[in-house]
Amino acid sequence: MLAAAPVAWPDPGLRAWADACSVASLQIHRLLDPGADPGAADVRGEGGAQDASPLVAAELRRQVTVLELLAGHGPSGLRRALDVTTEGRRVLRAVVSRRARGTG
Questions:
Q1: Spatial distance between the Cα atoms of 91 and 39, rounded to a whole number of angstroms
Q2: What pTM was estimated for this model as a whole?
Q3: What is the pLDDT of residue 93?
Q4: What is the pLDDT of residues 28-59, one digit of tens each?
Q5: Distance of alpha carbon 1 from alpha carbon 27, whole angstroms
Q6: What angle do CA 38, 45, 9 make, to 5 degrees?
Q7: Terminal CA-to-CA distance of the chain, rounded, Å?
Q8: How far is residue 54 from each of residues 19, 33, 81, measured CA to CA in Å?
Q9: Which pairs from 95-102 meet CB under 8 Å and 24+ separation?
Q10: For the chain, what is the mean pLDDT?
Q11: Distance between CA 76 and CA 26 in Å, rounded?
C-alpha cells in the first residue's frame, strides 16, 4: 500500500488512497477479532464504532486520533501519530500471537 501512496502532496488521489488503507486495516482487524462479524458493514460512518467489536473499535479510534494529531499539529504531530500507530501494531501482534496459541 505504501508503494501506491501519492507522491505529490496534496494530491487528488490522496483521499482515495487513505480511505483504502483505512478500510483494509479495519478489515484485517475484523478478521482477526474472534468477536467481530467478518461480514459486518463499514464502521467508519457516524456512530459505527458503537456496534463494532472491541478490536475494530480501538483501531477506528486510533485512526481518528492520528488524523486529529496531523490536522491539529501538522508535521509536529508526526511523532505522536507514530506512537499511536506503534501501539496499534503492538495490540495486533498480541492478538495474532494469542490466536496462534489457540487462546483467543
A1: 22
A2: 0.74
A3: 92
A4: 888 888 766 656 655 655 555 667 888 899 99
A5: 14
A6: 105
A7: 28
A8: 21, 8, 21
A9: 95/32, 95/33, 95/55, 96/32, 99/32, 99/34
A10: 82
A11: 26
- Scanning the structure block, which residue is given the C-alpha cell 477479532? 33
C-alpha cell read off for 49: 464504532
Which three three-digit cell numbers place residue 57?
Answer: 473499535
Q: Cell match 464504532: residue? A: 49
* Helix/strand/coil (H/E/C) assignment for every residue in the chain: CHHHCCCCCCCCCHHHHHHHHHHHHHHHHHHHCCCCCCCCCCCCCCCHHHHCCHHHHHHHHHHHHHHHHHHHHHHHHHHHHHHHHHHHHHHHHHHHHHHHHCCC
